[in-house]
Write a structure and sequence with these properties.
CATH superfamily of the largest domain: Glycosidases
Number of strands: 21
CATH class of the largest domain: Alpha Beta
Radius of gyration: 26 Å
Structural class: alpha/beta
Number of helices: 12
CATH topology of the largest domain: TIM Barrel
Bound molecules: (2S,3S,4S,5R)-3,4,5-trihydroxy-6-oxo-oxane-2-carboxylic acid
Distance between the termini: 34 Å
Length: about 500
């Protein structure tokens, strides 16, 4: 099997003043037509800022000659975006100097083998001085940002090749990154590669200002930078499967995922009927079919807070869980419960018990002093009945960034912090016994329907909807890094993202 790949290596750097001297024809916006095809290079690029004193190490060491990852650490950088705004590293926020972007591109065979096809590389804009290498060859330079520039790169990417395997000529190619790991559950542990794993993470939503729910690379990279800042090692895709690019990022960064299907709002008895059940099973088929190749996914969640105290829900959950296990015998299956241990009819069928509880929020408002006792009782009751590992899959408090009060009152940053502190004391009592994880509700504020309990959406985020930290984020950060340092595998090293320590090892 042979494949021709074109690698575009681009460097974007500081402003040099320049001006155009001549006008040789126009420059058309790239548009598809019967004779023209277009391939977007937007998306995730590899990135490195040259922090060397003279900012010229990249040129001295000729970083453009080999894949960027071979000359040192790289970061993920979405294109288009501004690197200063995406990162949590203050040095990048203020960086002036050369930065290097790299993207490996596989071109359709048609483009590379038909010598009559003209292949043009166009950069929409790069600020402020750009040098572009293609397959290590200096191909394009441009001064000043804002405006497009392009070059004919046909001679750099075209060559006559015949792809051949022992089975004959190859007509289809697909590359799939692979990760190998095992997942297992005992009566008190969640094991990854045979070692106890503790989920210290978040619940998310695919949500942000303006875009609402929709995939966006800059937002995703920002969120991953924040997860890293936080020291989180896991999240649940509450309450639906997320974009596939999200899972690809998790695979690459070693973030562990509980993949949830959109089985949310199953709150009424009439929902547990055969039509729903069959639809639910079909949706699980779609989720498993789509996501089964992601090593980051370690457990399926078939529902969030169904009315699992109902008999009919018991049968329904039993069937959906059995179906999911048959589809994928390699992963544990759960649903997320907010029922009482004595009443829940679905728990007998799950591998891990996931519990949502909002002590001192939806009950006993303001009584933070009750949390530890309530939490201990919750854990002990469930464990005694089921002897299965437990994850605290939601807990939290509405918090309006900038509201302060001491002693703490509900909706203030101090109250969120104090509530979290009490939960953490309770979690620590059971953490080394059978509680195998904690996921804060929520990573960031998100929009909801209006209601009496929502102030311009759900404000239980530890980050605002604009991804700025509330006080609780710093508390959680200290905790998660502490747990990460206690539990990380000593010998593994995350090489690619190494501006700072990584919790993902
Ligand atoms: C829950 C739900 C979640 C809500 C959250 C809340 O139990 O699972 O979807 O957003 O509580 O803040 O009320």
């Amino acid at each position: 099997m042979a494949r021709r790949s074109a690698v575009a290596w681009a460097a974007f750097g500081p402003l040099l003043w320049g001006c155009a001297l001549g006008l040789q024809g126009g420059m058309l916006y790239p548009q598809e037509s019967r004779s023209r095809e277009r391939k977007e290079l937007d998306g995730l690029w590899s990135f490195r800022a040259d922090f060397s004193d003279n900012r010229r190490r990249g040129f001295e060491e000729q970083w453009y000659r080999r894949p960027l990852r071979e000359s040192g650490p790289t970061l993920d950088m979405p294109v288009p975006s501004s690197f200063n705004d995406i990162s949590q590293d203050w040095r990048l926020r203020h960086f002036v100097g050369w930065v290097w972007y790299e993207r490996e591109v596989i071109l359709p065979e048609r483009w590379t083998q038909d010598l009559h096809t003209r292949v043009v590389l166009r950069i929409g804009s790069a600020h402020s001085y750009a040098i572009v290498w293609v397959n290590g060859v200096d191909t394009l330079e441009h001064e000043g940002g804002y405006l497009p520039f392009e070059a004919d790169i046909s001679n750099l990417v075209q060559v006559r090749l015949t792809a051949q395997t022992s089975l004959g000529p190859v007509s289809d190619f697909y590359s799939l990154p692979v990760g190998i790991r095992t997942v297992a559950v005992t009566e008190s542990q969640f094991l990854i590669n045979g070692k106890p794993f503790y989920f210290h993470g978040v619940n998310k939503h695919e949500d942000a200002d303006i875009r609402g729910k929709g995939f966006d690379w800059p937002l995703l990279v920002k969120d991953f930078n924040l997860l890293r800042w936080l020291g989180a090692n896991a999240f649940r895709t509450s309450h639906y499967p997320y974009a596939e690019e999200v899972l690809q990022m998790c695979d690459r960064h070693g973030i562990v995922v509980i993949d949830e299907c959109p089985g949310v709002g199953l709150a009424l008895p009439q929902f547990f009927n055969n039509v729903s059940l069959h639809h639910h099973m079909r949706v699980m088929e779609e989720v498993v079919r789509r996501d089964k190749n992601h090593p980051a996914v370690v457990m399926w969640s078939v529902a969030n807070e169904p009315a699992s105290h109902l008999e009919s829900a018991g049968y329904y959950l039993k069937m959906v869980i059995a179906h999911t296990k048959a589809l994928d015998p390699s992963r544990p299956v759960t649903f997320v419960s907010n029922s009482n241990y004595a009443a829940d009819k679905g728990a007998p069928y799950v591998d891990v018990i996931c519990l949502n509880s909002y002590y001192s929020w939806y009950h006993d408002y303001g009584h933070l002093e009750l949390i530890q006792l309530q939490l201990a009782t919750q854990f002990e009751n469930w464990y005694k009945k089921y002897q299965k590992p437990i994850i605290q899959s939601e807990y939290g408090a509405e918090t309006i960034a900038g509201f302060h009060q001491d002693p703490p009152l509900m909706f203030t940053e101090e109250y969120q912090k104090s509530l979290l502190e009490q939960y953490h004391l309770g979690l620590d009592q059971k953490r080394r016994k059978y509680v195998v994880g904690e996921l804060i509700w929520n990573f960031a504020d998100f929009m909801t329907e209006q209601s009496l309990t929502r102030v311009l959406g759900n404000k239980k985020g530890i980050f605002t909807r604009q991804r700025q930290p509330k006080s609780a984020a710093f508390l959680l950060r200290e905790r998660y890094w502490k747990i990460a340092n206690e539990t990380r595998y000593p010998h593994s090293v995350a090489k690619s993202q190494c501006l700072e320590n990584s919790p993902f090892t």
